[in-house]
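User: Could you walk me through two proteins back to back? I'd like the raw sequence and the structure tokens for each, with a short line separating them so I can tell where one ends and the next begins.

Assistant: Of course. Protein one, sequence then structure:
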Amino acid sequence: MVGRKILIWDVPTRLLHWLLVASFAGAFVTADSERHRTTPRPAVSPSIMVWRRGQAGTAPVACGDHDTPNLVLTASFGGYADLRNVIVYLTTGVHEFGGRRHLQLPGEYNRWKLLALLAGFVEGEGDRRVLDGIAQRRLADPGADTHLLEADLGSEGRLILALALNHRQDAVGPLLAALPSGARAAIEGLSPLVAVPRLPGRLLIAHGVGDASIPFTESLRLAEASQGRATAVLLETFEHTGPQPLWPWIASRVQDGGRLLRLTDALLSAQ
């Protein structure tokens, strides 16, 4: 028996594998654009999944939980590396990587989603409640007058509001530095970039170039930090988590379909 090769018939496994790949591609082709959705989405949503031997689920990658000896795969779709870069993007439209500077006009809706996120970092309950009220009112009606609410803000709340309302890239750094230590620590704690080099296993990363919530350059940073362990694709016809309308982008949609098939195949092959 020594040296004898034993072949295992894995046709059912392969059939299931490619059925899942085909289902993913079909959902991609028939999906509607995010522009037509009316349900509010968080400005920064969890988008990192991990696979350990025998289990799968979301991972607190940005929270310093690195006790992951059984981690075999980490996947990110539309994720970010540093929350500070996302703040720059949502307030100014600027995103940079590899010496290249990109500019995309920021959407005011995402600005108020950012304020709703930042409100959670405020220690004072009064300011936190007022900031959340401003954000929710502006999300419901971008033209709403919130000056009376803003007048009730304390010093911490005004700092957070100034950061959300800022439009200048060179002002983001000083505004972040002026935040209370607790808010700065929360922003740093939600930035997974420093944890990525310590994650074992492979990384699968995808990002839509047209993402208006998180710039695609953040996924490039995640891939760079993986030290060669990442498979990363940029999807020309995707926004934050879904595709753009089909027909105006048919040629790019076909190309993105091939990229998604490759990424899905790599994902399923790792199981």
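----
Protein two, same layout:
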Amino acid sequence: ADFWPRLDPGGSDAFCFNKFECTRKDPRQRSRDSVLQETNPGSEITRPSSLCPLPQQHRVSIRSRSLVALPPPADRSSIGYSSPMRRLLTLILVWAACFAANSAAPPAADVRVRELIRVLNLKVLPKESGYLGLIGESAQNASIDGRSLRIQSQVYYMLTRDRPINFLHWLASDDTHILIEGGPVDYFIFHPDGHVEKVVLGRDLGAGQRPVVAVPGGCWKALRLHDGASYALMANALSPEFTPDRVRIGEGPAWIKRFTGAAPWATPQFLRTLIGPNWITEK
């Protein structure tokens, strides 16, 4: 399109000259300078070096074949929000961006839990809850109750915020738990002679926590992750090896009656919580 606008006596459109365009040669039109001088004798011709929008001195309007300077633009500081309002809006936008970033990014502990589940190939443990992964078993055997069993088997076990309780179960094997990371974890141990223990698996030795908890065979136990803890990863060594016929999961009213009052924390309601979904109705 031809850069040079037509001179419209009744027009009011503003236009600007471009330094490069003003040097273009077009045989169809006279010199722009001569046209301006004819339409506005004695006027000074301005040749800006940039495109619109331009300062006031670079803008002209064609009206009745004369050049008229346009009024200067309104002060931008007087339009829109005041400075305090702009600062407030900026703070709100920054806060919203930070909130969105924090909401989108999962907590570091949750990322670590997913990593442990993937790397150690942990699976949800049915009935007892928590996550379990096999490590291995002993190369040696022993005769136990007339049957040959591996001397030991080892597993990973993990409690998390979404699965914070290892529900009550009885094991024939000795069960030694070694804390790898995370915790602490409460161990509620119920001995066959009727006495009970509460031991805390953790790293704060000064507070009475222990990094290793050994539970004798023939005991009931339940585990509970501390409030505020994200997870606890343990290595468990069972001696002799674990076999499905040497574990019993859950209990019923008679068991609660037997251990109620054995410790201040051993209330019927709390013992029922430790049994969880594995309640056994007695016939």
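The first helix runs from residue 32 to 39.

Let me know if you want the two compared in more detail.
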